[in-house]
Amino acid sequence: TPLVGVLALQGDVREHRAVLEQQGARTVAVRRPEELDGVDGLVLPGGESTTIAKLADRWGLLEPLRAAVRGGLPAYGSCAGMILLADRLLDAAGNAIPDQQTIGGLDVTVRRNAFGRQVDSFESEVAVEGLTGPPVHAVFIRAPWVEEAADTVQVLGRVSGGPADGRIVAVRQGDVVATSFHPELTGDTRMHRFFVDLVRERS
Ligand code: GLN
């Protein structure tokens, strides 16, 4: 049974653990570097990415997390988790924010709170490559999008329709996966199953 670490500094940790365990994984809350020992995969929850990054820095977790992802540990981030996995960040207005630390691992530029102030949250159907069945009912909460992705990054899903039509909201690069939306909140378990299957293949 694969062991998946869930970064547990802030955010919807409990929801991710519940879905991962439904998929047959064991989970461990990661708050200290030692808790990364022996994990087969890593999940970065939704929440507030500045808070998570600051806490990770303060607890001496940033470098161990970077090393783990660089070393090939499969990782999945939703929303704030996508921000944490991005190599480069923009604020909502499109200005670079190099002072916000990330774990990195995805050769993408991610724009925080990208969907605009008026649109605190919205829902939309997103066809995600690699998932069988109907499009995912995607819930976006003050969500980021991928502004730019390197050629080495596989685009798994885009918004279709509305003002954000065509925006990239699901990506994969090697064993690092990220979504702008929160499958852990909707009862659709396919995204987590996809990730747990990936972790199983690697462990
Ligand atoms: N807006 C949050 C951030 O920038 C992400 C929101 C979320 O995870 N639901 O970190």
TrEMBL record:
Position of the signal peptide: none
Keyword Cytoplasm: no
Source organism (scientific name): Klenkia sesuvii
Catalytic activity: aldehydo-D-ribose 5-phosphate + D-glyceraldehyde 3-phosphate + L-glutamine = pyridoxal 5'-phosphate + L-glutamate + phosphate + 3 H2O + H(+); L-glutamine + H2O = L-glutamate + NH4(+)
SUPFAM superfamilies linked to this entry: Class I glutamine amidotransferase-like
Active site residues according to the UniProt entry: 79, 182, 184
Pathway where this protein functions: Cofactor biosynthesis; pyridoxal 5'-phosphate biosynthesis
UniProt GO MF annotations: glutaminase activity; pyridoxal 5'-phosphate synthase (glutamine hydrolysing) activity
Residues holding L-glutamine: 47-49, 112, 141-142
Identification of the protein by name: Pyridoxal 5'-phosphate synthase subunit PdxT
Swiss-Prot/TrEMBL keywords: Glutamine amidotransferase, Hydrolase, Lyase, Pyridoxal phosphate
Lineage: superkingdom: Bacteria
Gene name tied to this protein: pdxT
Similarity annotation: Belongs to the glutaminase PdxT/SNO family.
